[in-house]
Amino acid sequence: MIVFDLHCGEGHRFEGWFKSTGDFVEQGKNGYLMCPECGSTQIAKAPMAPAVPVKGNARAPDQPATGQSTGNDNVALSNNKLDQKVVKVLEKLATAQAQALKDSKWVGKDFADRSRAMHYGEQKQQLIHGEATAEQAQDLIDEGVAVAPLPFPVTPPEDLN
After folding, report:
1. DSSP string covering 16-39, please?
2. What is the mean pLDDT of the chain?
């Protein structure tokens, strides 16, 4: 597998995994590539720095080795070219999500704790987005904390190039 940094015509950056450069080119020609933020199908490779692996004994003990699965990396895919009506709906949905997150603060893995603290008045209310496990999300819902899943993945700011 090869990882490419990609960008759309709107300037959003994200990454994609492909079997080869030819696979990337073929998927682009067939309209299978789409920006997760705005839904644009105008995708190109972004300039990339070479990947320099860290020595195996230098990573934190709880971190997986490069290329190792974390168990949370499954994504839903289709090998069918999407109907243009579906593409338009996805574009509108991605635009709506980007607009909703524009004034929201990324809190990463602190999402459940921060949401709960705001719900119980222990912290000032503000718009936030981040990561939570399915169990954490269900616990928040059971407690009456208003949360909703995001339709498209969000890249943490520290992971953006």
Report:
1. EEES-HHHHHHHHHTT----TTT-
2. 78
